[in-house]
Amino acid sequence: MTKKRVIATALAMCAVAATQATANTVYYKCETKNGTTFSQFPCDEQAQEHEVRHSNVEIKPLDNNFSKQLTELQLEQRRDNIELQLRSTKHRLVILKRERSAKTLAEEQRLERLMSDDERKALKKEVNANIKGIEQRYNERIKQTEKRLAQLEKSLKKYQ
């Protein structure tokens, strides 16, 4: 994680802590001739004091152990990044397999054209050689991508 990102995360945590600290706030309700008004400060002697209580259960109570929270945030970001890489790698694998199938089909379709038997035999050898080359190239790329996928899944398990 870059230094700027760590600083930004720490600042965000401080902002959340400040929000949590002020989540239970006092306000005043005053009845005036113009209607009901609400204020941070008492309007007059008859102002009624009320307290705003936070109702979001997902916000944890203020914890002064910011390094622990920062570490948890960093781990969560690493997990998210690995999950994104996993999704991208799986997508790349699907694309490679689709490209391989399309190129193999194009070579096989060359054989379907009308031609003499001699031409067909010569073309069949060429097509088979081309298909073999396509299979070798794409199988190697697919193998590398699957290996990368396994590495990403293994590293994701470390953070869960």
Walkthrough of the structure:
With 160 residues, this protein is mostly helical. The chain has helices at residues 3-21, 66-110, 117-158, and strands at 25-32, 35-39, 48-52. Strands 2-1-3 form a three-stranded antiparallel β-sheet, with no helix packed on it. Helix 1 (3-21) packs across helix 2 (66-110) and helix 2 (66-110) runs antiparallel to helix 3 (117-158). The model has no long low-confidence stretch (mean pLDDT 78).
Q: Can you tag this structure with a few keywords?
A:
elongated, 160 residues, 3 helices, mainly alpha, single chain
Trace the largest sheet across and list its strands.
2-1-3
Counting DSSP E segments of at least 2 residues, the number of strands comes to 3
**3D shape:** elongated
Helix content: 55-70%
The mean pLDDT is: 78
Major sheet summary line: 3 strands, antiparallel
Helix-strand makeup class: mainly alpha
End-to-end C-alpha gap: 18 Å
Beta-strand content: 5-15%
* Spatial extent as radius of gyration: 33 Å
Low-pLDDT residue intervals, each spanning 5 or more residues: none
Provide a count of the helices: 3
Order of helices and strands: HEEEHH
